[in-house]
Design a protein that fits this description.
One of its GO terms (molecular function) is phosphoric diester hydrolase activity. It comes from Penicillium diatomitis. Belongs to the AIM6 family. InterPro entries: AIM6_PI-PLC-like_dom, HAT_RTT109-like, PLC-like_Pdiesterase_TIM-brl. It contains 14 helices and 13 strands. By secondary structure, the protein is of the alpha/beta class. It has a single domain, classed as TIM Barrel, CATH 3.20.20. The strands form 3 sheets. Strands 1, 2, 3, 4, 7, 8, 11, 12 and 13 form a 9-stranded mixed beta sheet that branches. The termini are far apart. The site of one 2-acetamido-2-deoxy-beta-D-glucopyranose has 3 residues, from loops.
Length: about 375
């Protein structure tokens, strides 16, 4: 119940901020809790925040398990993150957001928590920008300070990829129809305010099925990518899995991939991130440091991902103790990792804004 009220609070207050009359009347019909909502400090807080989003400067942080936050999506936007993550489950033709099946709630859907709010924010941003753009340029994004900055919506498909995929495609329609999605048009990438990246059970064969229009990109397996590079003709065997039995446990970057992955499999036309678990791929030495060997592995992974035109993201960064976490963050930034996968938005954005040696997000190629 508390979760629902919190969510209603956000949705309604955003509605007030962006649609003073029309959306509010809609919201009143939708949420009987509105009297409660309007009286809370929270509503006022978010109302103020989203009338003045102009001062937020985006930084390379990715809001890990974003839906767990008291205020999903908006906390990440307020912090200036350029990526948010939602774990998605298909039940009865609806996509629910949550960590486990038992934590799902009727009101917490991909549409209600992410797609709907993003459509409203971007409609609002673009109506304001219209006079400036004179109807020609590409749509602007969520950040006033960086209108061309895309926001990555990382969707982790938890249920069977082949069955969940078409429902996801359908649900993205409101963003797609408004021209808000980054897509590959058969020749090149056309940047949009939102870049949808599929991970978990997202099936690579379906990601690449449409050769003239792709607007969901793959989260490529960085470790496999590295395996293909040692000799250019090398092909890496993934776990054998007949396509007709696309299992739900194949995991990130492997579902629906061809039996052999080679250096030509993943590139910017079909993938956005190359990611791997830091714990598994790099790990720390016994004295909790990255020695020269580990550092060389890290640099190699970053170099290879960038040579494929992909952005590097490490999952599974140790979160505790904090000094250790900060040490790893600092090294990742220094070495040119494109985005920090974080739970603690405040700590991460503080470090990112502190400069980390003048790093900029596209200068990671070395
Ligand atoms: C590819 O996607 C575009 C846009 O959604 C659609 O119009 C087209 O029919 C699709 N092509 C195929 C072969 O599915
Ligand atoms: C990107 O990958 C696809 C296979 O998924 C391949 O057909 C295409 O040629 C590659 N593009 C480049 C520029 O390497």
């Amino acid at each position: 119940m508390l979760g629902f009220i919190q969510f209603a609070t956000i949705a309604v207050s955003i509605g007030i901020a962006f649609f003073p009359d029309k959306f509010l009347s809609h919201a009143v019909r939708s949420w009987s809790q509105i009297e409660f909502v309007i009286d809370t400090d929270d509503a006022a807080h978010w109302l103020v925040d989203f009338q003045t989003p102009g001062d937020v400067v985006p930084v390379g942080c990715h809001s890990h398990n974003d839906y767990w936050r008291t205020v999903p999506l908006f906390s990440a936007l307020r912090a200036g993150c350029i990526g948010v993550e939602a774990d998605v489950w298909l039940f009865n033709e609806e996509l629910y957001v949550g960590h486990t099946p038992s934590s799902l709630a009727a009101t917490r859907t991909l549409e209600s928590m992410y797609i709907g709010p993003l459509v409203r924010i971007l409609d609002y941003q673009n109506r304001r920008a219209e006079s400036l753009r004179r109807g020609h340029a590409a749509p602007v994004g969520v950040y006033d300070t960086a209108p061309q900055q895309t926001l990555v919506l990382l969707i982790d498909l938890k249920t069977d990829g082949g069955v969940t995929w078409p429902v996801l495609q359908k649900q993205l329609a409101p963003l797609r129809e408004r021209g808000y999605l980054t897509y590959f048009n058969g020749e090149k990438i056309v940047q949009g305010p939102i870049t949808v990246v599929g991970t978990g059970n997202t099936p690579f064969d379906l990601v690449i099925a449409n050769t003239t229009h792709k607007d969901v990109f793959f989260d490529a397996p960085l470790d496999k990518l590295v395996g293909t590079i040692k000799s250019p003709s090398k092909r890496v065997r993934r776990r054998v899995r007949p396509a007709s039995r696309r299992s739900t446990d194949v995991g990130q970057g492997l579902s629906g991939t061809p039996e052999y992955i080679d250096a030509g499999t993943f590139n910017a036309s079909n993938s956005y991130y190359a990611s791997v678990s830091f714990r598994q791929a790099i790990a720390l030495t016994w004295h909790m440091r990255l020695d020269d060997t580990k550092l060389e592995m890290l640099r190699n992974q970053i170099r290879i991902a960038h040579s494929h035109g992909l952005k590097v993201r490490y999952r599974g960064i140790p979160g505790w103790p904090r000094a250790l976490r900060d040490y790893v963050w600092r090294i990742l930034l220094r070495e040119g990792v494109d985005i920090l996968n974080v739970d603690d938005l405040a700590a991460a954005t503080r470090m990112l804004r502190a400069g980390s040696g003048g790093h900029t997000w596209d200068s990671g190629l070395r």
